[in-house]
Recover the amino acids of this structure.
């Protein structure tokens, strides 16, 4: 079965948690596409060359989750040649046999417009910044400023800007716990699965 769940939305909205839970529940593979851009940002040098030479082990680096890596990712992600270099890998992952969940910014709009399920997971900037601050610590006001800066860059770029696909189901997790958000996502997927 070829079945793609595309999960898009801004930073710290809960896409990763929901994506992993949906993949576990339905036995699909999961790709956090933000790691591709984070790795390119962290490797440094010429970002286009880094994207073209990216290897699976680069995605396992332990320095990809920091605020700095997020900012570096969002800068290299605005370069069309970087996005182009990462496209085929993501498309193949999405349409390989067995079902796949991809989370990112442009999965439902650019990488896999034919996805069987498209979710747009969001939450208020304050709620997202608070969640990120619980993970990384430091000054919460600075984390909020970084979240807003990254939102503006990701939504404002010319190539593959962050926006909901026209046919995406919106899940606002501002006032939801993890279980509730996962249940909402799983309900949409269960509803669209082909009968077996
Ligand atoms: O999701 P995450 O915070 O790891 O993504 C880091 C950055 O990578 C985002 O801010 C965005 O600029 C970029 N990204 C993207 N397209 C994706 C996934 C991530 O442009 N599909």
């Amino acid at each position: 079965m070829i079945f793609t769940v595309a999960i898009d939305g801004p930073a710290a909205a809960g896409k990763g948690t929901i994506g992993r839970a949906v993949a576990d529940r339905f036995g699909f593979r999961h790709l956090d596409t933000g790691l591709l851009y984070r790795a390119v940002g962290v490797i440094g040098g010429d970002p286009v060359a880094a994207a073209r030479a990216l290897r699976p082990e680069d995605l396992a680096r332990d320095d990809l989750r920091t605020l700095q890596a997020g900012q570096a990712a969002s800068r290299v992600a605005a370069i069309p040649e970087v996005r182009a270099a990462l496209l085929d890998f993501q498309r193949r992952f999405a349409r390989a046999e067995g079902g796949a969940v991809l989370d990112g910014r442009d999965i439902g709009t650019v990488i896999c417009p034919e996805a069987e399920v498209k979710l747009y997971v969001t939450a208020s900037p304050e709620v997202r910044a608070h969640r990120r601050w619980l993970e990384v610590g430091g000054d919460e006001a600075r984390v909020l400023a970084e979240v807003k800066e990254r939102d503006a860059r990701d939504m404002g770029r010319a190539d593959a800007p962050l926006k909901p696909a026209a046919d995406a189901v919106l899940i606002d997790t501002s006032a939801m716990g993890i279980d509730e958000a996962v249940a909402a996502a799983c309900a949409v997927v269960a509803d669209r699965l082909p009968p077996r």
